[in-house]
Design a protein that fits this description.
alpha+beta, two-stranded antiparallel ribbon, 11% helix, binds zinc ion
């Protein structure tokens, strides 16, 4: 799984850390953006290199765009 900033292509090292508003410090990509301290899910992730915010999903470069995933979930199953 390739992870990189959508805006500057910075690839966070394993030791990269983000800080939640609750004070928790952790690697947000270990938990897909969920804070282990207060369970808040961060839909946007700030780049530690360029300081710009991007959708957490967009950091995962091997996944299709999030719009496609949401369409698949909302499509009712045919019985
Ligand atoms: Zn960046
Ligand atoms: Zn938190």
């Amino acid at each position: 799984m390739k992870i990189a900033c959508p805006k500057c292509q910075w690839e966070p090292p394993a030791g990269a850390r983000w800080t939640c508003t609750c004070g928790q410090v952790w690697n947000t990509f270990d938990t897909h953006g969920r804070c282990p301290g207060c369970s808040q899910v961060w839909r946007d992730t700030q780049c530690l290199a360029c300081y710009r915010w991007s959708k957490h999903h967009d950091w995962y470069r091997d996944l299709p765009p999030v719009e496609l995933l949401e369409e698949e979930i909302e499509t009712p199953l045919a019985h």
